[in-house]
Amino acid sequence: MKKHIVAIISYVFTITLGAKALTNLIKQITSDVEAINVFVNFTSYFILLVFIMILLKNEIKTDFTIYKKIPNKIKSIFTGYLFILFGNYISQVILTLLGRGNQTSQNQESINNLLNSKYMIFMLLSILFIPIIEELIFRKSFFSLLNKFGFNKNLILIASSLAFGLIHVVFNLSIGYDELFLSIPYIVSGLVLGYIYIKSEENIYTVTIVHILNNLIASLLILFVI
Predict the structure, then answer these.
(1) pLDDT tens digits for 60-95?
(2) How far apart are CA 133 and CA 7, in angstroms?
(3) Looking at the 3D structure of the chain, how many domains does it have?
(4) pTM above 0.85, yes or no
(5) Whole domain around residue 126: which residue ranges?
């Protein structure tokens, strides 16, 4: 239980005080805002990824041993991705009904801008390993921790999804409370990913691959289509 608490605290620390300290440090070297954002994003998340994978290495190994024996892996991944697409559609319908169908969260705007910058390759690499961190935190750690306290699976699913959604917008509320509405796609994604995690008997691999696949395809669409 302690390692899951440490994992969650380290995640919160990294995206708040850690990121701020690193930003101030990089500002002493360059004033290029894009370079600062990319470097802080890539470096902080990479360090966090290594730390959490070491911290949770036993569970990661155990899940992999079980995952190797699971049949129809491709089918599970494909089905999970279809669920994500359906969730995205539902999110867009909800935002449209709320009159915010054409709005994009500040978090997504930042990602779009960095993907279209000269630092695109670093952003793509970040997009590949950030889902690993998020699944180890919002699925593996959240579920494992709250399971120990005897919480109902549905309550854990809702709590982890709300946390997952709000963490993507909470630091941008200073620009307007519309960001709270724009957390809906993230919350819905959290619900879908949590559902996949539960159906996978809380094995981290299928849900992580689905998450990576979704982020990668969305990024490639931003780069080459949209």
Answers:
(1) 999 999 999 999 999 999 999 999 999 999 999 999
(2) 10
(3) 1
(4) yes
(5) 2-224
